Amino acid sequence: MKKIVIVLVLIGLSVISAISLLKTGEVRPTRVSELKSQFLEKATARVDHSKFPILQIKAASPRDLTAACLSCHNKTAQEVMQSNHWNWERPEYIAGRGIVYLGKKNVLNNFCIGVDGNEGTCARCHIGFGMRSARTFSYTDSTNIDCLVCHDNTETYAKAPEKGGAPEPVLDLNYIAGRVGSPKRSNCGVCHFYGGGGNNVKHGDLEEALFEPTRDIDIHMAVDGVNLSCIDCHTTERHVISGKMYSLSSMNRNRSHCESCHGEAPHADNILNKHMLKVACQTCHIPIYAKAHATKTHWDWSTAGRLRDGKPYEINDADGNHIYLSTKGSFQWGKNLKPDYIWFNGTAGHYLLGDVIADTSRPILLNTLNGSYHDPDAKIVPVKTHNARQPYDPAHRMLIKAKLYAEEKGQGALWVDFDWHKAAEKGMQALGLPFSGEIAFIRTQMHWRINHMVSGKDQAVACTECHTRADGRLANLTDFYLPGRDRNLLVETAGISLLWISLAGVLLHGSIRIAASRRNSKRG
Amino acid sequence: MKQKVTIYRAFERFWHWTQAVLIFLLAATGFEIHGSFEFFGYRNAVTYHNAAAYAFMVLIIFAIFWHLTTGEWKQYLPTAKHLRAQADYYLFGIFKNAPHPTRKTVLSKLNPLQRLTYFGLKIIIIPVMVFSGLLYMFYRYPQAGGVVGLRLESIRLIAVLHTAGAYLLMAFIIIHLYLITTGATLTSNLKAMITGYEEIEESQSDTAESEVQNG
Question: Which CATH architecture has domain B2-205?
Fold first, then answer.
């Protein structure tokens, strides 16, 4: 009997060890090494545009040049004119509201608040020419398309400030048009890195350090690594670019996912793969953002409009970040920030112009990212939280979109006339919304998803940064049981008491035995 | 007359000591995962805990097989007979050098309190730990094609049960370690579990006689 058991044990052990040996013997290229070799091969131009006669004819205006582009690319204008880069809006379904057209045109944020009425300066980041007003702009005139802002590969193209999207007049458009290609990081970054009025103001994870980043800044775009361009991940089909920001978007569609390249189970360690059901890649692989330059974390509009000797002024911190501007108010900045974490299922709601604020005692969430632990589509994602104090009308309980920009004085623009009352009146009037004449300031909050500045496994978030009793990264997500963080108070108290009682019991029993045996031996 | 008898056979001793090592490892790693302290490192603690858990389950399967085939499982059937006497012994008799109220034999090596305790461990605590542990390991959210039939919304209940069981096992170990010293001599129980042999009263003599002899 004994022998049989020993033999059985030995057989069992040898089977287990044989399986584990065979398993490790398997060698195949990892997904990451395949991806690396795939993306290290950079595409070369298939066409030399400088040889085309039509591009050699001196372009009298940017519009003429666009017409030249479209004479060959004769179906491209239709694609471009359906994109949200062009329309600055798209239809979105929002639960509880139905289908609404949302985009830069009409959505508020808590940075420069809104585009409407300020296009003269905002349209510098529109892929068109001559947008003086987003309402009156001709979205059907294909010669308004600015091809070069995205396709310039010479890094010499630049839009002029405050000219509704027109380029600088001094550019050699024919030279640039002869060297067009797929968008590079510089094409996308010139707008997306400077949103909110300066480098890294808005996103925190998109900034000029990403033009030529090192591996420490971003493992994908690193010039000393695979050197990916934006559109390697934001794959584009007929001018529809994947990926979007939930400051403007609402629906779970056309997103850009890490999993498209890396798959659903990219780790060798299966325990990490199991996490992916509820934890987004970014949560562990973007331990900090704003790695190179600070990002704005708080914007207080209520202090805007102060003048010194009748003139606007600015105050900067030691790093050169504005901490006060007469035009915009007071700011706080942060660098090397740990993200906040929320559940997100890919859908979002928004505060829209004219919405009545139900509760003015709490901060208004301008974009609500939906999701919870119990939502099967939701994962934990990292976000940048941007807080602000921005103007609202306490009588109508509506956020105010003030008129900020004008080319000259006397039009009521805050940045020129520094009069909140006039700016609010002009702004709301242009929107057809009521304004009581009262202005107060209310706290608002936005969540910006953090997706860039990705770190490799060596810098990824460690287990105990979340699985820890106090002050973990997920301390605010309390709708689920997290091992290492959570306990049942009753079981914990009863369990620990039981251990102490048991210990005390055996010590007491043992001491009495010792005492008793001494007494007995004395008697004995 | 005392006689050297085999109380614990080779497999039993292998089973006992492997189980002891595994339970200590499971406790140390488990309470690290629980957040009670840091020692192995969280990731290592999870790896070791899972590995030890698999080893423990393999061991349990062998132990069940052994107990069934040898008929030794009958040793764990609880009995009310002498239960009171055994409790009285631990509470009073032991301090007066009174004899053990029940006699250890090859056919009945567990006293009534041991039978009750081990029966409880085997029937309740260990199964609770194994099943809650398996659910903990293979717990998926229902939509991911995991434990669909169970419709578990959260890991909370599983984790709390597993923790409660762990505290009970720890309390058992504290008392168990102490009770090692309550054999015929301070070390006779330990020696028996290491060597398998223990000097016990000859099996021919009945209880009454042995009590007289001991007295």
Answer: Up-down Bundle (1.20)
